[in-house]
């Protein structure tokens, strides 16, 4: 009985990590599409969002089946609820990666406003967040989960930086307003994607410690 439950829980974790990997791939490809003005790559990211949605539904159904068949308690039940909660955040993270790709597709039709520096850096920090998050789950490491929260603070700082820069562009040359607003939307998508990864990290901490953890900015 215990062995069957362990197999089921491990399968849930593996599938959830696969979903995280898909979102990571979407984020990386969307960022490259933005920088390289690659319309085909952006369209591929948009199409991949359906895979994330389908995987979310599959894992959720598997989790419900595990509860019904094995009636887990204590830490096992906490893990299942952590996964179910994380699915929503990972699905939304995938949506934001898709939104970046949609805006990259739009921007690919005209010359870039400027050489992108801060936006791809936001994308790189998000990839680091996802790598660290996956490692924290695989190694059951609370310290790594807390590192994800620190990385999200860095993403937030970059968001504020790029927003200020784009506002300056618009004030100095009103002809840049349309592109600048689209780029601000990209930055916002990155920032929101990071917030959803932060939510998952907080839930991993709950799974591993039993304590409901909220980053300081979430406590208000």
UniProtKB/TrEMBL annotation:
Q: Keyword set for this entry?
A: Cytoplasm, Phosphate transport, Transport
Q: Report whether Cytoplasm shows up as a keyword of the record.
A: yes
The record, for Pfam families, names:
PhoU
Chief place where the protein resides: cytoplasm
Ranges for the PhoU domain? 17-103, 120-204
- Enumerate the subcellular locations listed in this protein's record, separating them with semicolons: Cytoplasm
Q: Does ATP-binding appear among the keywords?
A: no
Summarizing the function annotation, the protein's role is: Plays a role in the regulation of phosphate uptake.
| Quaternary state and interactors | Homodimer.
Q: Which family does it belong to?
A: Belongs to the PhoU family.
Protein name, per record: Phosphate-specific transport system accessory protein PhoU
